[in-house]
Design goal:
The protein is mainly α. Helices cover about 40% and strands about 10% of the residues. The chain has a two-stranded parallel ribbon. It is elongated. The two termini are about 45 Å apart.
Amino acid sequence: MIKLFGKLFAGKPEKDPADDESAKAQQGINDPVGPVSLEPEMAEAATEPRRTWIGVDLDGTLAYFNGWRGFGHIGKPVPGMKARVLEWIAQGFEFKIFTARASVPEGIEPIKKWLAENGLP
């Protein structure tokens, strides 16, 4: 793999056509540009609803993990991380679990059950 990267990045880079003066002139790159106002775009962005979420890994981050024991076993919550997640929720962030357990259907229900049992939405 390292040899492949070496071959990809070895030697001189190809010349960028944008470096050519005639190409710049054709594209209008050398034309003077006046001040740019972002106010219309910023005003539009401020009126759009903003969805903000935080993804948290389950095993080894939100829950203690001492090796795989099946979908039905999830360790106890890590107290500091649980408190942090609850604080984020109180601040208005949406909270999502990011875990490989959910890559198969049978992994989802135990996660939902664990969240409910541990006071997490």
